Amino acid sequence: MCESCKADALPVPVAGKRLRLSDLETGWYCTIIGTCLSMGELRRLAVRQGAVFPRPNPTDYEVHTGMIQLASRERAVSKAITKLLDHKHASALGRFRRAASVADLEALWRDAMDKGEVAGACWALMSHPAATETLRASVFGEIHMLSHQVGAAARVDLKRFHDLQKENAELEARAARQQERLRAETEARDASIRELKERLDLELAENRRLAHAVDAAAELTALKALVGELRQSLILETAALKSAEAARRDLEAKAAEALRENLDLSQEMNDVRAELAAMESRLGGVFDGDAAAFCGRTCGRPDLCGRCILYVGGRAGHVQHMRRLVEECNGTLVHHDGGFEESMGRLSGLLSQADAVMFPVDCVSHMAHDQLKRLCKRWEKPFVPVRRSGLGAFLRALETVGHAPAAAGGSA
Q1: Torsion of CA 307, 311, 315, 320, to 10 degrees
Q2: In this structure, are strands 383-386 and 308-312 parallel, antiparallel, or unpaired?
Q3: In angstroms, what is the C-alpha Rg of the chain?
Q4: Residues 99-134: pLDDT tens digits?
Q5: I need a surface site. Which of 239, 302, 308, 357 has the fewest CB within 10 A?
Q6: Cα 97 from Cα 105, distance rounded (Å)
Q7: pLDDT tens across 219-264, in order?
Q8: H-helix or E-strand containing 327?
Q9: Where in the chain is the domain with CATH 3.40.50.2300?
């Protein structure tokens, strides 16, 4: 609708007379009612006007939009809202009444915005006879953008409120703990004070009884010294108690550390026993003769099914024994020293012919370890970290490879 059409559609107010809500375009109702009246005031007005909403317990938005529609249709509702606005914002209406031009209204509006007095200034300007539709549209735009800013600030404040609630709960819990500790300390202190006071009262009573005695002054001095000694004893006992508590906490920490070390040692002992059992089983076969000729499949020795094992790192003196062990398990072993003398570039060629990779975690370089993991991942080769570089740990890890499917690996 153009400006001339809007002007034709609106009632023409009497010159110099302030406009009522019904004199204004209905497009301004949302801004005026939402800005200049609180939800409590709007709900009470809706009850007085007998407004009916689609639901028994309408939301704030439903009350807001419903009252806007009623005000645009029913003159009685529009009149009641105008009366409420005039009563609530009488002070702002008085200030704006002195404005005689658009420039005066703009100055008063800017001053109200700076002071945060938006609600009263909005109604006073919108209903002022000197206000133009352009000025009203400008005020509408400022209030509209202000609502966005207020909403954004409200979200920040809400988050901060939740954070503060959480912080407050933590502080309350901490305060409660401190309060309980202070209560216990206060009770102990009060008991000590009561005991000291009782003793002091007794001594004072005795001092009064001996007031006229020659040695009254000496006894009083002794009593004061006793009180000082008792206070000093209390200080020393408190310090001793704190020291004992600190010692107790230290002992508990050491006990927990010892327990962890014991568990680690127990695990290590179990691993060593398993490796020793594997070595004893292997040595038993050696002492019984040619194990490969007599054991068949009943000895529990893993069958590598012809797989090739790449062993990286370790001790050079163990390689020939490891190769013999692998060959006895129906497999082959290739070795790379992990870059000490052999080139690291040779690893890729060896890995391409290997079915599984093993390396001792205590005797292999970090460079070889990292490159080996990358190559195994790239070639999708299973790899088995061996816990030690000894033959026992190798035997145990070999059982893991032998009893696993052909495309799988594990850790020793």
Answers
A1: 20
A2: unpaired
A3: 46
A4: 989 999 999 999 988 888 888 889 988 889 999 999
A5: 239
A6: 9
A7: 778 888 989 988 888 899 889 888 888 988 888 888 888 888 778 6
A8: helix 319-328
A9: 293-403
